[in-house]
Amino acid sequence: METIQSQFDDTEPEQTINNDDLKPTTTDKRTFSWLEMASLWVGLVVGVSGYYVAGSLVDLGMAWWQGIATVVLANMILLVPLILTGYAGTRYGISFPVLVRASFGIHGAHVPALLRSLIACGWYGIETWIGGQAIFLLFPQTVKESALSQTLPWLGTSVLEFCCFIVFWIAQLAIFWNGIDGIRKLEKFSAPILIILTSCLLIWSYIEAGGFGRMLSLSSRLSSSEFWSLFFPSLTANISSWATLSLNIPDFTRYCKSQTDQMIGQAGLPIFRGAFSFVGLAVTSSTEVIFGRVISNPITLLGEIGGGFLTKIVVVFGLTLATIATNIAANVVAPANALVNLSPSTFTIRRGALLTAVVGIVFQPWRIFGSSESFVYTWLVGSSALVGPIGGIVLADFYLIKKRNLSIKQLYSLSPNGEYYYSGGYNLAAMAALVLGILPVIPGFLHKVGLLSSVPYSLVLIYDNSWFFGFFSAGIIYCIFSLFKRKLHKDGIEPLIYPDT
């Protein structure tokens, strides 16, 4: 770490691409132990959207055990890029926007950083909508049935629900104002509380359903062919729910004390996600027994549970804590850092967080979160089409092309002769690989949202597996372009992809 810091101190980094938030972390800022990384993941996993993803699998026809197997497999797959990308953050103390300068170029890094940030803004809006719904639960039934609670067609929701959304929107910003240390303390504080509250929900459903036997009696409603047609997009959707964080995990691992801390801290993800998914799937299954219908949305379920005002207070506290713990860590840090990287002289982490929150409103999350199908097939699967190619390119560059060796000095240099300046600050090989990794997924997405009446089955299959397709295809294409460029240089031929540096 001292070597990395000395490399940075020996440079004169360009102020237009550097400020205090973008500098490599110093030893005194390395405060994350494995326990705090694990607490981060507990806070991220135990949330309404994670419950809803798991519950949606039952709602769409899977048996509870099929849902858990899908979720655990997805997170075991995702753990690989999480640890691999997190390694770079811990080794060099750099954030995601700085790391992608190595593969996309000093200026080209803005493209993947802003694409990842755009998805984070959408997620921020979704999580904030969930928090607003928790506040809405506090109102008496007479208010919920009043004119203020009637949906306005042009808005897509009611005035009262929108006001609850804005109240929660404002409340979250106050917490983020304390920066990364505030997030660390929040996650460490919230993790045990969320585990207790989740256990209480599971115990309630166990008692009300008359035991685990009845609670898990809901069998699959799918034939073999129907199951496999649902399995692959569901696997992609579950990967997509944290695939965005697999890109910007260096934003957190740069604060880890060691590689051991970041790896052990993250290794519990499949366990945490599997355990919480069991709760989501088991409780969702139990609603068939308890209420006579499947309720996959936890907000709707908690509204059905009833109880006195004190019970509602506990419920709302649990929902808001889970939502804030997930939202701030997963959906504010990345776009805020990306905006700082875009214009260090204009943006700080706080200003970036504020703009993220504003864009989150524009996404109209109440429409995205409207049904299991729109949430899983359109939002989760669709967003993974952008995340997969970026992850494939970054890891291919770091491990296969650059062999884990980065120059800190060059990451902060605007010199045309700099190692990561490429062609005008853009690595055209990475840009081309990104486009080629995304394009084949677009027809399937347009078909899913109804803009194309029909597309070939092969394109539907690509869309259903968009993260896998984008990750591997973009990574392979990038390696081919990079090696081709290297061969041209070795043969003394002027490369066509970008000038050699």
UniProtKB/TrEMBL annotation:
One of its GO terms (molecular function) is transmembrane transporter activity. GO terms for cellular component: membrane. It is a multi-pass membrane protein. It is found in: Membrane. The keyword Membrane applies. The chain crosses the membrane at residues 38-58, 64-84, 118-139, 159-177, 189-207, 227-250, 271-295, 315-340, 352-369, 375-400, 420-446, 466-484. Residues 1-24 are annotated as: Disordered. Pfam families: Transp_cyt_pur. Gene3D superfamilies: Hydantoin permease. Keywords: Membrane, Transmembrane, Transmembrane helix. Its main location: membrane. Residues 1-19 have a biased composition (Polar residues). Belongs to the purine-cytosine permease (2.A.39) family. This is Uncharacterized protein. It comes from Cinchona calisaya.
